[in-house]
Description:
homodimer; six-stranded parallel beta sheet; five-stranded parallel beta sheet; globular; alpha/beta
Amino acid sequence: MIRIYNKLSREEKSILVQRPQMSNEEIFPFIKQIFDEVKREGDKALKDFTQKFDGVVIDDVKVSQNEIQDAASFLPNDLKSSIQLAAGNIETFHRAQKKGTTQVETMPGVVCWQKDVPIDRVGLYIPGGTAPLFSTVLMLAIPAVIAGCKEIILCSPPQKEYQSIHPGILYTAELCGITKMYKVGGAHAIAAMTFGTESIPKVDKIFGPGNQYVTAAKQLSFQLGMAIDMPAGPSEVLVYADHTCRPAFVASDLLSQAEHGADSQVVFVTPDVGLANQIKLEVMTQLKSLPRKNIAEAALKNSFGMVIPSVEEAFEFINDYAPEHLIIASEYPEPYLISIRNAGSVFSGNYTPESAGDYASGTNHTLPTASAARSFSGVNVQSFMKTITFQHISQSGLQKLAKTITTMARAENLEAHARAVEIRLSSSNEKGL
Amino acid sequence: MIRIYNKLSREEKSILVQRPQMSNEEIFPFIKQIFDEVKREGDKALKDFTQKFDGVVIDDVKVSQNEIQDAASFLPNDLKSSIQLAAGNIETFHRAQKKGTTQVETMPGVVCWQKDVPIDRVGLYIPGGTAPLFSTVLMLAIPAVIAGCKEIILCSPPQKEYQSIHPGILYTAELCGITKMYKVGGAHAIAAMTFGTESIPKVDKIFGPGNQYVTAAKQLSFQLGMAIDMPAGPSEVLVYADHTCRPAFVASDLLSQAEHGADSQVVFVTPDVGLANQIKLEVMTQLKSLPRKNIAEAALKNSFGMVIPSVEEAFEFINDYAPEHLIIASEYPEPYLISIRNAGSVFSGNYTPESAGDYASGTNHTLPTASAARSFSGVNVQSFMKTITFQHISQSGLQKLAKTITTMARAENLEAHARAVEIRLSSSNEKGL
Lengths: 433, 433
């Protein structure tokens, strides 16, 4: 459906930037039960749930060294070399993200600094399902390794066909340097990483996409004090297409997002109706021959094109929408980039399809959805680290700060805070200033 | 109580690093009711709740320009100059935290970059209660302003005495450049910033400490898609004191943490029993003359000293505990710093009391508690920004990536992803390579 921005009321505009509210409330009691059982029964619960939900009987929760080594033999050579090239680009971009220490002497004798330190133990969740998402393995494992996390584990549901995790996932994880992989998926995998079991270590932060159950499980885990990468929702793209765009390219990007799932949302914004209609026509034409035509068609039902003649208003709308993926379909994209305030990842120019960033350009594809890009970043090296601040104050530095600290502490009724300064400066305690 | 590490079982050690579990489950239905009412009634609900919970009748939710201007007259001059000096140091340290753009050409023609962008709208919550926490205003407002957030609002409950927010908070907020302040506290303030009301704008991220109700409200808000600074819990300190420490200084630091609240936890680790007893004795002596003696005494009941002769084991325990504040009480602190993996903020050396960082050294005092320092950072400039990734690919760059993307996309059963690349490279679409 094509909408004309200037004919919409303020309320209609604000409804269009909203995404369907996903409530997990109904499934929460079910997830809680799974958590309780995993906490109580450990590996036994994991094996039971895996038999029940995945239809696979597992003897050992951990993937064996043999299974990992055999994985490569299942994959065609061109896929392996593609994964390797993509891994190289992702590594190059993420390695550049590591920051050094920031140190400042705020006053003479008062030195403050900030240091990024890897999170000790992280858990990566990779969904199962029809398509093995080995690209997501790259996107989570590479920054975790670059950050320097001491323990990196991976959970993914076993596939009936292999009686283990899909070999594409095992191969990719091994390529990235992951050695601990577990044949467990769903909410019980999240529970296992939250509490730890005999096989699976408890972690400090959980990453990765998943279905509604996995999402609810990550929320519950967060409530129990676990850190998680970000709230998850259906994938989405917004394309801003000006007069120098190529309508066929725009349509191909919209469809590549639409084929993800029936709940995907694809949106395009153009300055005029003629262009909007051209894009729509291209979408209809290209749709016909897609293998996942039915999924894409369902997704297009949630989707719309929007005509906004003013560039300023267009980017006001786009920033309000805060898309996960934002494509600037133009021969001259640069002037638009400065106006972008809210987006997960931006694809600039006519030759930068979203699929480049999904797989191989180097950027991460684990991104905030449902307008979370207003305040959340996509996964990056910093997601696997935390920042610790330090300070070192000399006795003379403390002297200079003393009056300030004691005055403020006493005004906040915290006498012991003031005394902790004074005891260090009273003459009886001085050790030769 | 003093404990000897080598005599503890593994289980006893793991229990000692745990904090009391705080469950908000019982109060959740109550918080939900408040959220519903604020969503439905807007400002009217805020006024009703403020009368009910704070005993103050407010005509206007927003603090007036006059109230802000009058605030300075309530404060003694030495307090104002102390706040100004502290603000200067905090600004210096936080300004240094701003990072530039990271740009990399991962392959010829494939340029990826990462840019930090301020979050548009942020809400700062400052608790009321007996002590006005103007220091927390500094810690939240200064990084928000440095980040460049477009809209920064502040909510704090009105005090009966002033029929408005405490003048110390108003003065400090104004000094930092905050202009929109609202006389609302508690769970209803969090609800207002989550949904927006006639007076209070909806924000993208909520910051700040609070009691159990505010904490539960922030959790509920997070479930509704809001970003929050971090999970909150009672404040805590761990002091590592070696033979070159000054036991009286260590005791003063333990007590300055203990006076925060009966639920605070203070811990010290020393290499031998003799030193542990000296510190304990000093604590008992200094405690006697404190105005908040009863609170400190109650906090000391949750607390312990631990004797660990091996430095390596000591820091294993400390990293496991992951304290909010970590003091290295030693004349030669440097060799220990390298072993710190999990802590919120570190105070290095005998002349660096925690109260320096609480108020004036320049570091932030909004820090992760209850071992969240394993994966969360304290508030810093980055907390008020998000990272957006960008990529620009030339036609020849896409050519080089094409085989990789199409091979991986097809192996993941995503045909439209492959076609979005091929359509850009097929001869009919080439526009003079």
